[in-house]
Amino acid sequence: MLHPQNNKRRKKIKAVLFDIDGTILNCNRAGSSALIKATVDTFETVGKMEAIDFQGKTDKSILIESLSIMGFSDKDIEEKSHILKEKYFHYLEKSINKYEVTVYPGIKDILIKLSAREDILLGLLTGNFTESARIKLNSHDLNRFFKFGAFGDDAPIRDLLPEVAKKRIAELYDLVIDFKDTIIIGDTIYDVRCAKYAGAVSVAVGTGWGDSEKLKNENPDYYFDDLSNIDEFMKILED
Ligand SMILES: [Mg+2]
């Protein structure tokens, strides 16, 4: 709670929403390997999963894109998705420590700073399913920073996730946050497009696997090669 004496100078409350893969951490294919294994177990094929680019996509859309070529309808996939998820989370949980999961420079310090601020609501906006997001973040004890999020189970496409985050904030904090006071941080052109689609502030980071020139060409509101310059990043919140 804010102290009453601070109320006059009270800062505007902002939501800061982080993508996970390529932005917070690199799980070195732990996620895709587990998803491929679970998909084979569940559907007896991976379809074209090994050939598609996972970047910026929700887990749900990765499944649809991979399996539709094998004749599976969205409904077929949906019907078995609880089995698939169970297997995926099991494989991921079991194997994640065998992969070298790395957290990108500056991230942990930024999360510590942001989570200490009463004017910041820190959340996730990711294509990961809720549970796989938890498993990935847990490998470096980062779950504790995030009280809410919008996930790959919530919508098939990323552009719909800011609305979900807004709804979660309203439920959790009894607060309506305008998208102009929402900052979306991600490593792909899809994160930037999703922020723009919502009318949120877009922050692109070049730590992911994509071409950084392409990322800059999307004209994000802010671009960083990485987030190692914490003070520079924190300035965004003052604008
Ligand atoms: Mg990403």
Task: Write the topology of this structure.
Blueprint: E1 14-18, E2 25-26, H1 30-43, H2 59-67, H3 74-95, E3 102-103, H4 107-115, E4 120-125, H5 130-138, E5 148-150, H6 161-173, E6 182-186, H7 189-198, E7 201-205, H8 212-217, E8 222-224, H9 230-235
Parallel strand pairs: 1-4, 1-6, 4-5, 6-7, 7-8
Antiparallel strand pairs: 2-3
Helix pairs in contact: 1-3, 3-5
Please provide the count of β strands: 8
Bound molecules: magnesium ion
Number of helices, counting only DSSP H or I runs of 4 residues or more: 9
Classified in CATH, the superfamily of the largest domain is HAD superfamily/HAD-like
CA-CA gap between termini: 23 Å
Number of domains: 2
Strand residues, percent: 5-15%
CATH architecture of the largest domain: 3-Layer(aba) Sandwich
What is the helix fraction of residues, given as a range? Answer: 40-55%
Radius of gyration: 18 Å
Name the average pLDDT.
93
CATH fold field value of the largest domain? Rossmann fold
Q: What this model shows, in words?
A:
With 239 residues, the chain is of the alpha/beta class. It folds into two domains: 4-26 and 102-238, HAD superfamily/HAD-like (Rossmann fold); 30-98, Putative phosphatase, domain 2 (DNA polymerase, domain 1, Orthogonal Bundle), CATH 1.10.150. It contains nine helices and eight strands. The chain has helices at 30-43, 59-67, 74-95, 107-115, 130-138, 161-173, 189-198, 212-217, 230-235, and strands spanning 14-18, 25-26, 102-103, 120-125, 148-150, 182-186, 201-205, 222-224. The strands form two sheets. It has a six-stranded parallel β-sheet, sandwiched between helices. Strand 6, helix 7 and strand 7 form a beta-alpha-beta unit. Helix 1 (30-43) packs across helix 3 (74-95) and helix 3 (74-95) runs parallel beside helix 5 (130-138). It is globular, with a radius of gyration of 18 Å. The protein starts with 13 loop residues before the first strand and ends with a helix. Mean pLDDT is 93; it is low at 1-8. The chain binds magnesium ion. Magnesium ion (MG) binds next to loops.
